[in-house]
């Protein structure tokens, strides 16, 4: 049985121990206005103090609600929140791609969706280096992916897969919500319908399965119906390339 109070304390201690061991100072977090980034922000604020947390909103042809709810989180926990609008950066890149040929939008859709988190991750690392220099202590980038997302490969290689510390990777969506309740994450953020803020679809619409079913499947495959089982297995199997980089080794 998942004990949210106990796990919350353990995660907070995990962060503190890692920072002490590696002489680190602060964290940079992409704040999307969703539950995962809200819970991660709450955990780091509890572990490091609000003065050592930097939240970043990075709109890129995205919904205004994302930024508004990110501010709700930052205001509630009291950490600094800055905005870096990536819309013009994205548009400039796209204009260069247009010079390569007149491609149909359907061909570019997946490339466009994945480009945005890659720009965002570059921004977070840029700011981590900048704040490290300004404040004289090392800032690192915190990851926000949960166990359910990771199991089915719902992340972007070179985008949200890149970070320096991960605190939700062993928690299902339901467990993330339980930790969020423990930390009093604002309800409009904690219970917001999960979405990437990029494709105008919910996560579950894109995946074709519910997060609750993914959690059940990970616990006991037989607990979900055959059709759902097949979908989850296919997502899991087809995304294994995201986890391992094949590397040739000399054999002598």
Under CATH, the homologous superfamily reads HUPs
Oligomer: single chain
Shape: globular
- Contiguous helical run count: 11
What is the alpha-carbon Rg in Å?
19 Å
The helix-strand sequence is HEHEHEHHEHEHHHHH
Describe the biggest sheet? 5 strands, parallel
Question: Any idea what the CATH architecture is?
Answer: 3-Layer(aba) Sandwich
Structure description:
The structure is a single chain. The longest helix has 31 residues, at 105-135. The radius of gyration is 19 Å and the shape is globular. The chain starts with a helix and ends in a 14-residue tail after the last helix. Helix 6 (147-151) links the parallel strand 4 and strand 5 (165-166). It has one domain (4-194): HUPs (Rossmann fold, 3-Layer(aba) Sandwich). The chain has helices at residues 4-22, 35-48, 64-77, 87-98, 105-135, 147-151, 173-182, 187-190, 203-207, 211-219, 226-238, and strands at residues 26-30, 53-57, 80-83, 139-143, 165-166. It contains eleven helices and five strands; from the N terminus they run H-E-H-E-H-E-H-H-E-H-E-H-H-H-H-H. Helix 1 packs across helix 7 (173-182) and helix 2 crosses helix 7. The protein has 252 residues and is an alpha/beta fold. It has a five-stranded parallel beta sheet, with helices on both faces.
